[in-house]
Amino acid sequence: MSKKYIFTDSVGYLTTTISRILKQKLQSRFNTLDLNTTPEQWRLLVLISNEGEMNQSQIAKLQHKDRAATKRMLDNLENKQLVIRKSGIDARSNTIALTKAGQHVVNIFKDASKNTVTEALSCFTETEAKTLNQLLNKLLTHIE
Question: HTH marR-type domain: from which residue to which, for each copy (predicted)?
C-alpha cells in the first residue's frame, strides 16, 4: 500500500507559502516607510548594492529571472531614479548602477528586512536557523 501524498508537506508548497507570507510581511513594513518600493525591487537594489555594477543579463541570472522580467523591473527602478544605465558598446553591454537615492532605499530597507527575517526565525534556536539556511542553500545549489 502506497503512502498518501500530502501536498501541504511538500517542499514546493512549504517554500512557496513561506516566501509569499514573508513577502507580504516585508511589503507591509515597506509601506510604513512610504518609499514606494516592493520587496522584489528592493531585492534587486540590494543585489546591485552588494555585487556592484553589472549588466542586465548578469542581474537576471543572479535573480533567477528571465531577462524580459528583469528589464521591466529595471525600467521601473530607472523611472523612480533608483538605478541608472551606463552606456556600453550596445544595449546588451549597458551596466546598471545604483543612484544615491537607490542606495538610500537599500539602507533604509535593510533594517525592515532584518527585522522581518528575525521575527520569522524567532521560533528557531541560532543553531537551527543556521542549519535551515545551510539546507536551503544546499537545495538551491542542487536544483540550479
Answer: 8-141
